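Ligand-bound model needed. adenosine monophosphate.
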Amino acid sequence: MDIERLAKSVRNIPDFPIPGIQFKDVTTLFKSSEILRELVDGISEMYKDKGITKVVGIESRGFILGPLVADRLNAGFVPIRKPGKLPAATFEESYEKEYGLDVIQIHQDAINKDDTVLLHDDLLATGGTMVAAVNLMKKFNPRKIYVNFLIELEELNGRALFDPEVEVTSIIKFDI
Ligand code: AMP
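Prediction:
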């Protein structure tokens, strides 16, 4: 992967959705057929020997690369969604956001203990969302949990929140 080219292709939107946030817009990566393929090839290559059986994507930008990578890895795809979206029985986790609590849910029959899981989301900021997703995964006691982000905002040090046994990778790293 040409990381410099990838980084240059992410669009920065200042003060979105609220003042003070520099929003990383990944649609500018995905709209390029070349870059989309480079990302799917690159991420799949990183995990091809890990025995991944399920790729788990977080709503909603984890639903873009997640299924494409799952297909390459011959794995299934499982969504983690916001409350009230999944129709069958769910497990849920809540986590602190800047303003109040947020909740994510997964179907109770989505994962089993023989699965090796790759969790994927577009961006690691404070880490709150993905730590909650890892906690959801732990309820299933899978063989191993891997975590991948397309983008990591290194200055926020979200990576420090993860247990050492959870392997965390990111493709594009930004200072802010
Ligand atoms: P966090 O829980 O703080 O790591 O936030 C991660 C979630 O919020 C991801 O699902 C991102 O899509 C979104 N997010 C947080 N900060 C940004 C940002 N600066 N640009 C784009 N998305 C963001």
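The helical segments are 3-9, 27-30, 33-47, 62-72, 128-138.
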